[in-house]
Amino acid sequence: MSIGPAGHMARSTVRPKCETARRGPLRTLLHTVDGVPIDAAYDPGSFVHNTGRAPSGHLEDLAIVVAHGFTGDLERPHVRRVAGVLAHYGAVVTFSFRGHGGSGGRSTVGDREVYDLAAAVEWARSLGHARVVTVGFSMGGSVVLRHAAQHLGDASTDAVVAVSAPARWYYRGTAPMRRLHWLVTRRAGRLLGRYGLRTRIHHRDWDPVPASPVESVPLIAPTPLLIVHGDQDGYFPLDHPRMLAAAAPGHAELWLEPGMGHAEHASDDALMARIGAWVVSRAG
Known about the structure:
Radius of gyration: 17 Å
Largest sheet: 8 strands, mixed
Family: Belongs to the AB hydrolase superfamily. FUS2 hydrolase family.
Strand order of the largest sheet: 1-2-4-3-5-6-7-8
CATH architecture: 3-Layer(aba) Sandwich
InterPro entries: AB_hydrolase_1, AB_hydrolase_fold, FrsA_esterase
Region (Disordered): 1-20
Helix content: 25-40%
Oligomer: single chain
Shape: globular
Order of helices and strands: HEEHEHEHEHEHHHEHEHH
GO molecular function: hydrolase activity
Pfam families: Abhydrolase_6 (PF12697)
Strand content: 15-25%
């Protein structure tokens, strides 16, 4: 599955004026460059929505696009929670990757998902946001890194945060990753994913294999980059974030979080608030 140009959303599905769109939450279907419908939601920010004004530390023209992990979707409680914290720092766009939730298609586990993220970023810009930041978790972390490396014009990002992201493909060094590979590569696993985890997984192997996150990181500069990883991550040990940071010496900022596990479930509100503050400082 090849990676081509950025996805483009269906313009007719959104209201054209930023002032109109920001009156309240908005739900729509975006369409990627390869024709996959992507379920997406927009929130102008909890303080703006509830009080009509932005709080201190909130950037009026900033949108934060949240890229969830594998088997997540925009309706999952853990995704809504992290989005709710980030909404204190700017507007938030959440979406479901292909094969997840209300989106169409099948998951390619980090390959064509770059199209989905590009469509979400472009949508945020169409709503009037001059600054757009991507925050990705696990699989979504690998996607935001690969997306940022491509510098896609209207679908590009002004800063990027990867939480619990892998550095390289086909990693099987932990029991959770061995289980995930069984889920993706075996027919029985894909059936379990579809009916047990609400995730539709594509049966085809990558062809060609997309650039890995560690190959993508050097291409992200000068876009600000934050890598966040827990020292108790059961999926990807600490050599993954260290590899990512070493691939961009002097550019990437690395936070190794004591006691933290994996992805959204392990990202407590205090950590998300720190990420929100970093986003405002770098995007601003």
